[in-house]
Structures are given as C-alpha cells and as structure tokens.
Design a protein that fits this description.
single chain; alpha+beta; four-stranded mixed beta sheet; 18% strand
Length: 560
C-alpha cells in the first residue's frame, strides 16, 4: 500500500484536494483505485460521496423493464429488440430489466462528479450463505425477487433457498481482504442492490465498475463511472468479463449468462510449457543450491536448532537437540517462513539441515502437483489423483469435459480448491458449472472430480462417514531417494453421514474439524495407538526407507 498522495496533483493549494482528510483517503486507497482503473479526477468526489454516504445514482439513472414487443409492431423493430437482448443478456429470469440514463442532459465522462456509489444488498462468505438466507429477516424475499421469482411466504421455503443458491452465481461479485488471518482473507462474495444488479453485460461497455473497500468505515461499495459521454435514454452496461482479452476465455467466463459451444475443445489437458514453470520459479525468487554431500555426524553430537515455530519449541525435548536464538550457529533451521537462498546456504554452510527443499511448491501447491503428476500417465493423470484442471490455464478444457460428462449422464460433482491454502479454506463442492466458473474470479483454484463413492467409516454415534488418514512424511534426500514416515498417524472423521446432497454442509463433506469453530472434533486416539503398535513390526533397511503405501494398506485393513 502506498502512503503518499499521487504526484501531479491538479488542484490548487487550499482546494479540497489538499484537505487532510482527502490526503489520508488517497494514502489509504491509492493502490486500490489505480488497480481498478478509476481516473484520478474522480477521486475527490468519490471521497466526498463516501464520507457523506451520498447515493445519488437515482438522479441520473433509472431502471426500465423490457417488455415483449406488441404484435402490431414492425417485424424489423421486433427483430432489432431480439438482437439487442441476445447481445446483452440480462442475468436471472424474466422479467428482464436494463438501466438507462434518465438525466435530461445526459452526463459527461469528464465531469468529476460523475462517479457513483452502488450499495450491496447481501455480503457473505460461502460457508454462511444458506444459514443467512434462512435466518436473516427479509433476505430470502429480497434475493428471490431480485432474481426473478416472487416469494411472499413467512417462513423460508427450501425450494426458494435452493433457487437463490443456484441463481446467485449470475449476480455475485467478489473481493478479498489483504490483511488479517487466513480465515479473514477468504474471499467475500456480494450481490449489488437492485440498481447495480440490473446493469447488463456488453462487450463494449459504457461504464466501468469496481468493488471498493473503504478502510476507515470497513465497508465495501461498488463504484460506477462512465467510460464515455452518455445521452438521455442510453443504456448503462458493464463488461462481465472485464480485463480478459482472449476470445475463447471470454466466452468461457460469460457462460453463466450466455451459452457457448466448446465441443471442438479437446478436454485432454496439455503439459505446461517450460516457460510456465520458469515463471513460477522466478516469482518465488529462489536460488538453487549447489550439490552437497550429506555430512556424517557423531551419534553423540548435540544439534543446535533455530526455529520460529512455537510448536517446535514446545514439542522437542530430546537430549540431542538444543535450541539457539542465533541462526548463524544453528545446525538445523526449522522455519515457518519460506526459505529462498539455497545457493548461499549450500555454499557457506553445507552441513546445515533445513525443513524445506528447493522448488517444493511443485509438490505442495495444488496446480503444480496436478500438472507434474500427469507426467506419470499422460493427460488423464495418475489413478490416485482425480481428474483435475487448473481454472486459470485450463478452463476451456474443463468446461468441455464437464459438458461431455453431462451429455453422457455421468456424475458431475466437483470440488474447487485454492492452489495454496490448507484446512479446507475456500473449498467448495458443487454440480453447478456457473458456480465453478465464477470461482476463477476469487483465489486461484483447481477443480477436481469429487469422489462420489468414497470409502466410509462407521461411527457408532453417527453412522457411515467420510474419513482420512494423515501421514507425516519426511523427504531426506532426492538422489538417492530417501523418505521417512512418522509412525504416529491421525485419523480424521466427518461428523455427519455421507450423502451426495447438502454440498455446502462442512461437517458432512469435510474431515478437518480441529480448526472449524463450533463443530465437534472426533478424536481417534485408540486407532492411532493401534496403528503405531502395528507399524512397530515394519522392517526398515539401512538407508532408512519405509514403504509408505504398504503402511497405508495395513492401516486400512486394520480399520476394516
């Protein structure tokens, strides 16, 4: 975040732009405004309207309902209307609406006051959407009416809730905070008010829009400004695929509103280019180490450990390890933060052991893991990895594959996961193609085929639930390959019986309960002890190898 006003200020000394409040506004929001492409001459008015909570769009614009042409109208006029409707499809169902300029004199794109605030009717995170629709008074009615279905019942109707949860992906917009905990950085979704939601799409938009988070009030708005002069009666439109210039990708991004035929797209995902991986490597700013020989240590050596992880400080009490606050004298670096300068470490301190390895993101980040895993069996990938697509680089391939499965009547449950988040954060299970496509606008994600028939575990208190087994694996060396596995395992269980419904029910479809608030954590101490006992009999060769897959098979046999 930049901390100084923009240079080249066009205001004279003593004007509003020199005001201390405005200077602070610019200091806090300059980076966001520049990234959104908001012209600088609008900024003073934007500040004034936000501070005064001035929603004055009604003075310039109106909402028009699009009626079917009367029978007596000329055929050409009817055809022209139909062409316009196809050109700019309205989100949602009938009736259709559009926003037009109603000011008698139109508006000028050079008028510094022609920037407008749009309020948000609903702001939420996905895990709370269903609960809010049911519990927040009036919300379900407003969303249903906004999306084209009249609902006047007193109690929430399950069918109406499902309708809104399906249709909202034609209306949703998103932003995420750049500060706070990992949970606080999970994308926020919002639906603009009736005015903003009626603005239709055009490939040649007349207005720009952008979400804007006002830091002092911790409130978000959408801001609207003209891209050209507008006359009375002209339509207000925006680009639903703003910023995307590739015609194929644009058609994919617009699929929630208008159909696209991707039958010609091969759903086989190609191997990413060398430049793709080189870009990832350059972004990480790592330096590769020089080859080193593993040092030979006397078995009586006391290793000095430097760490910035409280869990390590609290959990290590072996007599051969001693903690040090001096990183330079450490034999072992156990870092939470990303280590990057491997070359210097291998050159100056080749004996030091580190809890990371170069380019480990190829295994730990989901898009990289999926792409390099396909090298085992080609585009289909290895048998242990469900079919996976990178939504950023492989969206057309995914849509083609989804549509083909749909035509064949095959199961189409999918799970969207952020590239580089853990603990099931911002992870979604759905059969809704629009839902998946819109996820591309939030955190970068992969989408994987959801396992619709998983192996289940019987819990006496619940029934048949999903579960997973968590291993701790240590990579000691690549050449030669040496892998160790910790002989204590963690079993994690879902809290509700598995069925292919209620896909937003976290406790039914996920197993990581020790981070979620107000959910039961099922401990599996007795199973862990049995596994640990079982693994005591595993043979280990002199190089320290352990057959991880064999251990896994024995664990499954033990449980069932």
């Amino acid at each position: 975040m930049l901390s100084a006003p923009v240079s080249g200020s066009m205001a004279e000394p003593g004007s509003q732009q020199q005001d201390e409040g405005y200077s602070q506004f610019v200091a806090l929001h300059q980076a966001a405004l520049l990234a959104s492409g908001v012209p600088q001459f609008y900024w003073p008015s934007l500040h004034r309207k936000i501070e005064g909570e001035l929603f004055d769009a009604g003075e310039m614009f109106g909402i028009m309902q699009v009626e079917e042409a009367e029978e007596e109208e000329e055929e050409e006029e009817r055809a022209e209307i139909e062409r316009e409707l196809k050109k700019k499809p309205n989100p949602g169902t009938e009736p259709s609406f559009k926003v037009i300029v109603t000011n008698e004199h139109g508006l000028s794109a050079t008028d510094p006051n022609c920037i407008f605030l749009i309020d948000h009717a609903w702001t939420y995170r996905m895990e709370h959407a269903r609960h809010q629709l049911i519990e927040v008074p009036g919300l379900l009615h407003r969303m249903a009416n906004l999306m084209g279905i009249e609902f006047h019942g007193e109690a929430p109707d399950a069918d109406v809730v499902e309708f809104v949860l399906k249709e909202m992906w034609k209306y949703n917009q998103t932003y995420r905070l750049s500060h706070g905990t990992a949970e606080e950085k999970v994308p926020v979704w919002y639906i603009m008010d009736e005015f903003g939601s009626r603005i239709q799409h055009s490939d040649e938009p007349t207005f720009g829009t952008a979400p804007f988070y006002y830091i002092p009030h911790q409130l978000a708005y959408t801001i609207l400004w003209p891209l050209r002069d507008m006359s009375n009666g002209e339509e207000v439109s925006r680009d639903y695929a703003y910023g995307e210039t590739n015609p194929l990708i644009r058609s994919c991004l617009l699929l929630p509103w208008q159909p696209v035929d991707l039958a010609h797209i091969n759903h086989q995902t190609p191997e990413p280019s060398e430049a793709h991986y080189q870009a990832i490597f350059s972004k990480n700013k790592e330096s590769l180490p020089l080859p080193v020989e593993p040092p030979l240590h006397d078995k009586s050596k006391i290793f000095k450990v430097y760490t910035d992880m409280q869990q390590v400080l609290n959990g290590v009490n072996h007599h051969r390890f001693a903690f040090t606050d001096n990183e330079k004298e450490a034999d072992i670096l156990f870092n939470f933060s990303h280590f990057k300068d491997y070359k210097t470490l291998s050159t100056e301190r080749p004996h030091v052991l580190l809890n990371q390895f170069p380019c480990e993101n190829l295994l730990t980040v989901k898009d990289c893991l999926a792409s390099i895993s396909r090298r085992i069996r080609g585009p289909e990938g290895p048998k242990w990895l469900p079919r996976t697509f990178n939504l950023k680089t492989e969206l057309p391939h995914f849509i083609s594959y989804f549509k083909q499965r749909e035509e064949r009547g095959e199961d189409n449950h999918w799970i969207c996961k952020p590239w580089n988040l853990a603990r099931s954060l911002d992870t979604h299970v759905t059969t809704n193609l629009s839902y998946i496509i819109r996820q591309r606008e939030s955190t970068p994600k992969v989408v994987s085929k959801y396992i619709e028939n998983p192996v289940l575990f019987y819990r006496d208190d619940v029934g048949m639930v999903k579960f997973d087994i968590r291993y701790v694996v240590l990579l000691r060396s690549v050449r030669p390959l040496k892998v160790y596995v910790y002989n204590v395992f963690w079993l994690r269980f879902a809290n509700r019986p598995f069925t292919l419904d209620d896909l937003d029910d976290y406790e039914k479809h996920f197993t990581v309960m020790n981070y979620a608030s107000k959910v039961q954590l099922k401990q599996a101490i007795e199973f862990s002890r049995r596994i640990e006992y079982l693994l005591q009999g595993f043979p280990r060769d002199h190089n320290g190898y352990l057959e991880v897959l064999a251990a896994g098979h024995h664990v499954i046999n033990l449980l069932f």
